[in-house]
C-alpha cells in the first residue's frame, strides 16, 4: 500500500505538470474552467463528463485535472481521473500524451490487490492499453 501511495503521489505531480504545460499552451485558445471550492469529486466528474459530451475535450481535461489535484490522494479517484484524461488523448490519437499515463496506470494496477480499485476502470484500461500497444507495434521502427 505504501508503494501505491508513493506512485500516486509521483503520478499526481506528473499529471499536474502535464496539465500546467497544456494549460500554458492552450490557454489562449480555450476557456479556463472554474470549480467551486466545495465541489465534491462526483460534481467535478459530472462537469468533466458534460464538457466531454458537449465536445469540449480541453475543458473536460481541465476538470479531470482539477479532480486529481483536489481528490487525487484517493486512489480510486486518482485512477478514474487519470484514466479519463488518457482515454481522451488516446481517442484524439495523441499517443505521446496518453502513453505515460497508461504506463502509470499499469504500474498502479500491477501493485494493487484485486478489489482495491474500481474493477470497471481496470477493464477499460486493459482495453485501451491493448489498443495503444497495437498502435505502437504498427508504428515501431523496422530493423533491417
List keywords for this structure.
144 residues; mainly alpha; 6 helices
Architecture overview:
The model is unreliable at 24-28 (pLDDT under 50). Helices cover 74% and strands 0% of the residues. The chain is an all-alpha fold and 144 residues long. The relative contact order is 0.13. The termini are far apart. It contains six helices and no strands. It is globular, with a radius of gyration of 15 Å.
Given as residue ranges, the uncertain stretches (5+ residues, pLDDT < 50) are: 24-28
Q: Helical element count?
A: 6
Kindly report how far apart the N and C termini lie.
45 Å
Structural class: mainly alpha
Approximate helicity band? over 70%
Average of pLDDT: 86
Provide the β-strand percentage band. under 5%
Compressed to H and E, one letter per element, the order equals HHHHHH
Largest sheet: none
Shape: globular
Counting DSSP E segments of at least 2 residues, the number of strands comes to 0
The gyration radius over C-alpha positions equals 15 Å
Topology:
Elements: H1 2-26, H2 41-53, H3 57-71, H4 75-91, H5 95-111, H6 119-138
Helix pairs in contact: 1-3, 1-5, 2-3, 3-4, 4-5, 4-6, 5-6
Give a quick rundown of the structure.
With 144 residues, this protein is mainly α.
Amino acid at each position: 500500500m505504501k508503494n501505491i501511495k508513493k506512485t500516486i503521489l509521483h503520478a499526481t505531480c506528473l499529471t499536474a505538470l502535464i496539465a500546467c504545460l497544456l494549460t500554458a499552451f492552450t490557454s489562449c485558445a480555450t476557456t479556463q474552467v472554474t470549480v467551486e471550492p466545495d465541489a465534491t469529486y462526483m460534481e467535478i466528474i459530472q462537469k468533466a463528463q458534460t464538457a466531454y459530451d458537449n465536445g469540449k475535450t480541453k475543458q473536460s481535461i481541465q476538470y479531470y485535472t482539477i479532480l486529481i489535484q483536489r481528490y487525487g490522494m484517493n486512489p480510486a479517484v486518482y485512477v478514474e481521473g487519470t484514466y479519463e484524461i488518457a482515454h481522451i488523448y488516446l481517442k484524439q490519437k495523441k499517443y505521446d500524451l496518453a502513453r505515460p499515463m497508461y504506463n502509470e496506470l499499469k504500474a498502479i494496477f500491477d501493485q494493487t490487490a484485486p478489489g482495491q480499485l474500481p474493477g470497471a476502470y481496470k477493464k477499460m484500461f486493459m482495453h485501451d492499453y491493448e489498443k495503444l500497444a497495437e498502435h505502437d507495434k504498427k508504428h515501431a521502427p523496422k530493423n533491417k
